[in-house]
Amino acid sequence: MGWKIVYKTTFPNGKIYVGSDRTDDIRYLGSVDKDLVARDFTREERRAFVVRRQILWESDTATDSEMRAQENLFIRELRSNEPAIGYNRTPLRRSSGC
After folding, report:
1. Pairing of strands 16-21, 52-59
2. Is residue 20 in a domain?
3. Fewer CB within a 10 Å sphere, N or C end of the chain?
């Protein structure tokens, strides 16, 4: 088995995306919805664009299922599935009062 990771990508506006990667490819920055990101930046802001990727969790023994569970845990903990905070759209947010 190779390394599996859960990472957080932080965009210049402070919004985040949490994702996972089974290959630990240093070039991979995630599968964030490009249209969601594009709406948040002007043409001028796109001219110089820096993102930061941080590894939140890693394992060389975990199954894909365990990796996805960790990813969902971090999405909920960091609230990256709340539009004001991040670009994740799943897992769906739990509404308060339910």
Report:
1. unpaired
2. yes
3. C
Tell me the C-alpha distance between 19 and 51, whole Å: 14
pTM: 0.89
- Alpha-carbon distance of 2 to 26, in angstroms, equals 14
Nearest to 58 by CA among 42, 40, 71, 41: 71
Between residues 28 and 45, the one the model is more confident about = 45
Per-residue model confidence (pLDDT) at position 41: 97
Inside any domain, residue 54: yes
Neighbours of 66 (CB within 10 A): 13
Instruction: Report the length, in residues, of the chain.
Output: 98
Closest CA to 20 of 32, 7, 11, 33: 7
Structure tokens at 58: 């890693």
Q: 3-state SS string over 64-94?
A: HHHHHHHHHHHHHHHCCCCCCCECCCCCCCC
